[in-house]
Amino acid sequence: xxxxxxxxxxxxxxxxxxxxxxxxxxxxxxxxxxxxxxxxxxxxxxxxxxxxxxxxxxxxxxxxxxxxxxxxxxxxxxxxxxxxxxxxxxxxxxxxxxxxxxxxxxxxxxxxxxxxxxxxxxxxxxxxxxxxxxxxxxxxxxxxxxxxxxxxxxxxxxxxxxxxxxxxxxxxxxxxxxxxxxxxxxxxxxxxxxxx
Length: 196
Description:
Blueprint: E1 8-13, H1 20-32, E2 36-41, H2 43-47, H3 55-66, H4 74-77, H5 80-83, E3 88-94, H6 96-103, H7 110-119, E4 125-131, H8 139-146, E5 151-153, E6 156-157, E7 168-170, H9 175-182
Parallel strand pairs: 1-2, 1-3, 3-4, 4-5
Antiparallel strand pairs: 4-7, 6-7
Helix pairs in contact: 1-3, 6-8
């Protein structure tokens, strides 16, 4: 990655709440490395409190880390296309629901509209998978997305193959490396890595 350039990265967050702590950590690391991060929040991320924390507190922390107000509506996400201001867009975590909708061109949330708008510019869309059914009903969607132009995956593995044999989660610490490769039009390898 050209360290002399300040890359503009969209960071879209969907509702795999168990990953939110690691998401905050990687965003902080990316900002410190010089990336300009624009947060984008799914509807569930905006509204749903969970045992992992309060939605409002999480969004406020992400906005504090990035120094930017997050995109929170379809209307706010749509200009990503015509303005073309992102070098790359990351969806992290990327849930099974999000993968299924991406495969079918559904744009019913800020994150999905951001992805559609960004892809029209033929720039990298990076997916950081986090779903209990990656090797189940969503397996076909994962395969379809892996073969789509300008879509790249953060390396992933099974997180608990004994209790959740169909679950896979991305190695979020590899998001910056995945972005670097995707900006060169390459999928980081190996894409599937050992269990956690």
